[in-house]
Design brief:
This protein is α/β, with parallel strands linked by helices and 220 residues long. The protein folds into two domains: 124 residues, Rossmann fold; 68 residues, Winged helix-like DNA-binding domain superfamily/Winged helix DNA-binding domain (Arc Repressor Mutant, subunit A), CATH 1.10.10. Strands 2-1-3-4-5 form a five-stranded parallel beta sheet, with helices on both faces. Helix 8 packs across helix 9, helix 8 packs across helix 10 and helix 9 packs across helix 10. The longest helix has 15 residues. It is globular, with a radius of gyration of 18 Å.
């Protein structure tokens, strides 16, 4: 299967560099380039890429809003946010907008390719444990997850599912959660699948963010 990739960056040289790296891979194909967020959304709607490499700081519609819109117009498309710093407010904003992870712009080519393949396969690039550290560092900037809507969504979970969500929010793997809650790992996986479905979340990273926004988890 060929992974179809849209590159969104306002720097032409960076777009060319990314495209050159991608074209050299037998399982990847650049299907478009966008110089700003508005173009990225339009192209995502037209070509339905598997993955978008999305710069944050672009003129007009920035990468965060573009991520939100891309996911809305092309739900199966996965977005990788490109940041200058490994921990900043843009990384958090990108993840909450629905991105599947973030990469540094100076990421080595082999790491970029691995990240794209992982995201295209449905995985997240940033592990929940790293996401937790990111959220803790940005705790003062994280808004409350929102009153009635938050409470209504949490009420969909069983007591056991809420326990599993808390452990996911702490950055534990399925194996670690199974040991902590004395469950079979397959059972934890089943609980997590139901949690994502009931809370209408895209992946495990979104579950970590939800746990923080709903105040189920507090910084260590």
């Amino acid at each position: 299967m060929t992974i179809r990739i849209l590159i969104a960056d306002d720097e032409a040289l960076l777009r060319m560099a990314f495209s050159t790296v991608l074209e050299a891979q037998p399982d990847m194909s650049p299907v478009g380039e966008a110089a700003d967020g508005t173009q990225a959304v339009r192209l995502a709607r037209e070509v339905r890429p598997d993955v978008v490499l999305m710069d944050v700081r672009m003129p007009g519609t920035d990468g965060i809003e573009a991520t939100r819109q891309v996911i809305r117009v092309s739900p199966r498309t996965r977005v990788l946010i490109l940041t200058t710093f490994d921990v900043d407010e843009y990384a958090f904003a990108g993840l909450t907008a629905g991105a599947s992870g973030f990469l540094l712009k100076n990421t080595r080519p082999e790491e970029l390719l691995t990240a794209i393949r992982s995201v295209a396969a449905g995985d997240a690039v940033v592990s929940p444990r790293i996401t937790r550290r990111l959220l803790e560092s940005l705790r003062p900037h994280i808004p409350d997850g929102g009153g009635a809507d938050r409470d209504e969504r949490l009420s969909r979970l069983s007591a056991r599912e809420r326990e599993v969500l808390v452990q996911v929010g702490r950055g534990l793997s399925n194996t670690e959660i199974a040991a902590t809650l004395y469950l079979a790992e397959a059972t934890v996986k089943s609980h997590l699948g139901r949690i994502l479905h009931k809370l209408e979340l895209r992946d495990r990273i979104q579950a970590v963010i939800f746990a923080y926004e709903s105040r189920l988890i507090h910084p260590a």
